[in-house]
Design brief:
about 150 residues, mainly alpha, about 85% helix, about 0% strand, elongated
């Protein structure tokens, strides 16, 4: 029982850190960063993402390990899990794939462009990142709603 409690706590914390970080970046940092000149704004995002993305990668690992542990330890596998858990799993995997794409493609190109002073490429890449983070934020909020309400479904 203690292992399940610990898994649930770690799972929830990882989700809160990831989704909460996206809310903070998208809803608070992004509008405030609009007041900065382009080069300063890109430098800010370079620093923010350099700190946030490794934490998200760790959260992804924690979510996968704890999620599948709970799936098998508490529900006896896929057949014992409710619809909300399957939906949460599917959307979570999609979010992880989107994050993986952002991390290996637009983020890498953005980081390289900012470091090289290539502002037009940096601007194009940050726009891609913004759209994908917006999508992941929407999916993440849906997952949180599923996780918190699914146990009450009939």
């Amino acid at each position: 029982m203690l292992e399940l409690t610990l898994a649930q706590a770690l799972h929830t914390l990882a989700a809160v850190i990831w989704v909460g970080g996206m809310v903070f970046a998208y809803v608070f940092v992004r509008p405030a960063a609009g007041a900065l000149d382009g080069p300063d704004r890109q430098t800010l995002w370079r620093g923010v993402f350099a700190r946030f993305f490794p934490v998200v990668a760790l959260c992804v690992v924690v979510l996968l390990v704890t999620g599948y542990y709970m799936m098998f330890a508490a529900h006896g596998g896929f057949t014992g899990a409710g619809l909300h858990i399957h939906l949460m799993q599917g959307l979570g995997l999609l979010m992880m794939a989107i994050f993986g794409h952002v991390y290996v493609a637009p983020w890498r190109r953005f980081r390289g462009a900012v470091d090289a002073g290539d502002r037009p490429t940096g601007a194009a890449q940050i726009e891609r990142i913004r759209r994908l983070v917006g999508l992941n934020l929407t999916l993440g909020l849906i997952v949180v709603a599923l996780a918190t309400s699914g146990q009450y479904w009939a």
